[in-house]
Amino acid sequence: MTRNIMIVGVGGQGSLLASKLLxxxxxxxxxxxxxxxxxxxxxxxGSVVTYVRFGEKVYSPIIxxxxxxxxxxxxxxxxxxxxxxxxxxxxxxxxxxxxxxxPVITGAAEYPADLIEKMEALGVQVDAMDCLSLANEAGSAKxxxxxxxxxxxxxxxxxxxxxxxxxxxxxxxxxxxxxxxxFALGRGE
Length: 189
Fold this sequence. Notes:
The protein is α/β, with parallel strands linked by helices. The protein has one domain (3-187): Pyruvate-ferredoxin Oxidoreductase, domain 3 (3-Layer(aba) Sandwich). 38% of the residues lie in helices and 23% in strands. The protein is built from 8 helices and 7 strands; from the N terminus they run βαββββαβααβαααα. The protein has helices spanning 15-28, 76-81, 102-105, 115-121, 131-138, 144-153, 160-170, 176-187, and strands spanning 3-10, 32-35, 39-40, 47-55, 68-73, 86-95, 125-129. Strands 1, 2, 3, 4, 5, 6 and 7 form a 7-stranded mixed beta sheet that branches. Helix 1 (15-28) runs parallel beside helix 6 and helix 5 runs antiparallel to helix 8. The longest helix has 14 residues, at 15-28.
């Protein structure tokens, strides 16, 4: 059975490292893994989507609407934007941070209110947390991606030490301790 994870966010938030870390971990677990290229504007501020698919044999890197087991979102509006990709039994792991898109910044639109509550009202399983505060507590606002990976790890039967080893192998040594702390905070430990 193939499992599907979408990582959605805004350019410059570290979604590439998150997908690299996840892909690396799943490969070491013996899965066939396909990680897509980034779709969208990878410059800071544009919407970015990465697909991570894994299983015994994976033929395509693309996730269609209604197929995502997990959506990991760096921002509330991005989670809502990709909701139609989630399976009815899927879960959204979302950072409660609000990053205003250009139409909101220019005053052409308003940021939608109560997005988490609206998703929950639709029956969606939402695991929402303030990842930015936890990343800052770990030592850097840039660690939001690893806080999210820590939270996502709670839904997998992969031992925590294997996640930690993947972090050590995927992040520069000088950021190892900060990222390990961010991961632990994301797990809630």
